[in-house]
Amino acid sequence: MANAPAVCVAALPASERLEISLFCYESTPIGALFSAWAEGDCPIRCRVPPGQPLKAVKTHFGCDGPWQFGNLQVEPIPFLSQPDYDRLLWSCDLNFVRGEDSFVRAQWAGRPFVWQAYWQQQDTHLLKLDAFLQRYVEGLPAPAGKTVGDFFQAWNRISPQVARLWPEFLAIFPELKAHNQRWAEHLSEYRLVNNLVNFCLGKL
Questions:
Q1: Residues 24 and 33: beta-carbon distance below 8 Å
Q2: Of 74, 83, 84, 114, which sits 20 to 30 A from 122 (CA to CA)?
Q3: Total number of domains constituting the chain
């Protein structure tokens, strides 16, 4: 993209690099996304916990970490207690989360996040994703909401399109930061986190 450097400058925090946590299932299309991160203009540090996330990363790189790949630095981290994981979510600029518990906690953290729903037969997990996105993007301008929806869908459909969609997702990062702060305040004020999860599950 011709305006990628300008997008990067707008998106970067004061540390001048994006801090990302990656808590995902082993089937995640990390290869495509890592390539986009490594070849992009924004320095990124990605921290990966043990279990399926780290196994997927080791399979991709073919060796033990940490790893440096272009503008991407990937660091394994030890198992974290729940309070320490919450602190990790708060400290990162973007959190990739999965399932239900980390999904809820990422929303409490008030940081931009990408959710990977637990895979179910007949694409039932995609119905949950659609139900969540319908509520979640309401506070975003339509173009930004579409960008978020497209990226979440590609991530959950295990699609290499995440690499193509990443620059567009990064371009709306300032909007996402403000949106997620408002979203967390909304959930806290009305105590809707459990209701939201039940809403998604109720769409089955």
A1: no
A2: 114
A3: 1
